[in-house]
Design goal:
Layout (H helix, E strand, L loop, with lengths): L2 E6 L2 E6 L20 E3 L5 E4 L6 E5 L7 H6 L1 E3 L3 E5 L7 E7 L11 E2 L4 E3 L3 E5 L12 H4 L1 E10 L4 E10 L5 E2 L3 E8 L6 E11 L2 E4 L2 E4 L10 E8 L7 E8 L2 E8 L10 E6 L18 H13 L2 E7 L10 H14 L1 H4 L4 E4 L7 E4 L7 E4 L3 H4 L1 H8 L32 E5 L2 E5 L13 H4 L9 H15 L6 E5 L26 E2 L2 E2 L4 H14 L4 E6 L5 E6 L21 E6 L18 E5 L4 E7 L2 E8 L4 E7 L2
Length: 639
């Protein structure tokens, strides 16, 4: 996010961070961590195959829709709103309907029985027919209506669900609207951050307990911004508060409950899942990149089970895009799926491999050659992820300064900001890692192009993890530590040839500036496990995703964790620990595979599985429920 507002001693401070637009390609645009990417004699950026000498140009698929267009292409008409795209080749259907004016806890639009035709990029939304018995918004009396709309292309695929306020009783005009959020983020005992996006620059405010937390613009930007993060502070711990977001002539009211003081050791529940990228079956199982059908159920069930937060670690969306605008649209669809529950409880998110955003080169093969998108500071997968979510900023900065940093005088790596972090709730700490940093999707081409492999934790992140685990182990208020990372240390179904295993091939590793790093994938896995198991007494479980199933395995020194004939140093565990993988939030399922450690897998399921951790002082139990059927997958005492 880009806009932060705080109140200090009654003075409101507001900061705007303006992202720079990527500049035209030049030699300096190419990160030194890569190799064989060059500017040719014609001034074009290309990948040069070192074996053949052939040049592969940049590949960029055109965007049919952009998020800005989907939200801001409205004009007023006598009978409603006109949705008009610049692209005349866009055809399909627009479903629309009103939000009820009855203070619903979880507001949702009710679509009218007659949709609007989207023809040659234009759709006429007729609000005037939503009157009398259809006027659940009371617009005939109040002159304002909150409208929900759904855009479906001519093949029947849902592209986007949006919302907008319409003003008037005929003629109508589109007005200032919250088009995303509000969301509850960074919830603590005494503060919380409320974030939301408006459809035009504005200076809204949030009212809590009679105090206004507002965005007063500095540095001459009196129009405000469209992305807003507002810190609410000086709150009482373990207390429920209503908050009202006031924008223009409209206000929306929701609530949150602050966390207990750390170490209070009160009973609470939190939820965990991952992998909600688009599934099969049509409809809401694929709203342009996200399985909204399943995620809505996960969000609803987590809230209904009184979860105080939900941790979601990776593969929210299809991703693997070369377009920032398309990536933003996919993220918007995912956030929209759980938005009504995020009004009240935090959804804390970490990245996975499908959050990949790529600079791609078309060499004639099916997928071409691709690396993490650059410039890293403005366009990388890491930066765009951070722009879309509001997470703690207590993680490492980047891999700059590491042993393999090509140039310590400048920034050579993407940022870790808001993609690697930790947070606490009462006596629990959650450490969130990124196993797809500087990610090159095809590990086989890394020796000739550079980048990092799927599942590899690089040096500076590992160093930060070690320091963080040590800090939490010494914290008397923390009893239970969970480490979450998208890729399992031990895959069980769907990723036997990658994750932290690669069929037992330790030669797989990152290449930086044409040189391999010192440690291979299995060596690095062992260093990672040594930190969270042998150097910690509090880490209870490793929470993973990536594999589209649910599995629970107990790992100890009786577990076979090396390939036959492995000659490297072997890790011994000082205690047993749990690895729990839950990538069942809607992505196409994977069945179980036979692997060296399969006998340590105590439970495996391909059901949709929402993990609910019940924490009560020193005790932790796990309930795994299917939000689609309300069935019980399993229940177990963990500590």
């Amino acid at each position: 996010m880009k806009h932060i507002s705080i109140i200090l001693a009654g003075i409101i401070l507001s900061f705007n961070v303006i992202a720079q637009s990527p500049q035209k390609s030049s030699e300096t645009d190419i990160p030194t961590v890569y190799h064989n990417i060059k500017i040719n004699d014609a001034g074009t950026m290309v990948f040069v195959n070192p074996e053949t000498g052939l040049e592969a140009p940049l590949s960029n698929a055109p965007d049919k829709f952009t998020l800005a267009e989907l939200r801001n292409s409205f004009t007023g008409t006598e009978n409603g709103l006109r949705l008009e795209f610049k692209n005349e080749k866009i055809n399909g259907t627009v479903y629309y309907g009103l939000y009820a004016d009855d203070n619903q806890t979880f507001p949702q639009p009710v679509f009218f029985n007659t949709p609007a035709e989207l023809l040659n990029g234009i759709a006429e939304i007729n609000i005037s027919q939503l009157k009398e018995k259809y006027d659940i918004a009371n617009w005939e009396e109040k002159g304002v209506a909150k409208l929900g709309y759904r855009i479906v292309d001519e093949q029947g695929k849902i592209i986007y669900d949006g919302k907008i306020y319409a003003y008037g009783k005929g003629p109508f005009t589109p007005g200032l609207s919250i088009v995303e959020g509000p969301f509850v983020n960074k919830l603590g005992p005494n503060e919380v951050t409320i974030s939301f996006t408006t459809n035009s620059p504005s200076s809204p405010y949030v009212e809590v307990n009679g105090e206004k937390y507002s965005t007063v613009q500095l540095m001459g930007n009196m129009k405000g911004d469209v992305e807003h993060e507002i810190l609410i502070h000086h709150l009482q711990a373990n207390t429920k508060y209503e908050y009202t977001v006031v924008f223009g002539e409209v206000k929306e009211t929701y609530s949150f409950k602050t966390a207990p003081e750390n170490g209070s050791r009160q009973a609470f529940t939190f939820a965990y899942a991952s992998d909600s990228r688009a599934g099969q079956g049509g409809g809401e199982r694929n709203i342009h990149g996200a399985n909204v059908y399943v995620m809505k159920k996960f969000g609803a069930y987590a809230h209904a089970q009184n979860s105080v937060f939900m941790q979601f670690t990776g593969d929210m969306i299809n991703g693997y895009s070369t377009s920032i605008t398309d990536q933003n649209l996919q993220y918007a669809n995912w956030k929209r799926s759980v938005e009504t529950f995020w009004h009240y409880m935090p959804f804390n998110v970490g990245p996975g491999n499908h959050e990949a955003l790529l600079t791609g080169f078309d060499d004639g093969t099916k997928y071409g050659k691709s690396v993490d998108k650059f410039p890293f500071g403005t366009a990388s997968a890491e930066r765009i992820f951070a722009n879309n979510f509001v997470n703690p900023e207590n993680g490492p900065l980047s891999e700059d300064g590491s042993k393999y940093d090509p140039d310590k005088s400048k920034t050579d790596f993407p940022p870790y900001k808001e993609g690697v972090f930790y947070y606490t709730y009462d006596n629990v700490a959650m450490v969130v890692l990124n196993s797809n940093y500087l990610y090159t999707p095809d590990h086989r081409i890394i020796p000739i192009i550079g980048g990092n492999v799927h599942g590899y934790i690089m040096d500076e992140q590992l160093k930060w993890l070690s320091n963080t685990i040590n800090k939490l182990d010494k914290d008397e208020n923390i009893d239970h530590v969970f480490v979450t990372i998208h890729t399992p240390a031990f895959p069980n179904g769907g990723h036997a040839t990658d994750d932290m295993w690669y069929s037992g091939n330790n030669s797989v590793r990152p290449y930086i500036n044409g040189q391999p790093v010192d440690k291979g994938i299995i060596e690095r896995r062992d260093e990672f496990l040594d930190i969270i198991v042998n150097k910690s007494s509090k880490v209870l479980a490793l929470l993973c995703g990536d594999e589209h199933n649910y599995s629970r395995m107990r790992i100890d020194n009786n577990t076979t964790i090396y390939p036959e004939g492995y000659e490297g140093k072997k890790l011994k565990f000082k205690r047993p620990f749990w690895q729990m993988t839950n990538g069942s939030a809607g992505a196409p399922y994977y069945g179980q595979q036979a692997l060296p450690w399969s006998s340590s897998v105590e439970f495996f399921s391909t059901q949709y599985s929402l993990m609910l951790f019940d924490v009560d002082g020193e005790k932790v139990s796990l309930r795994v429920l299917n939000p689609d059927t309300f069935g019980v997958v399993e229940e177990i005492e963990l500590r």
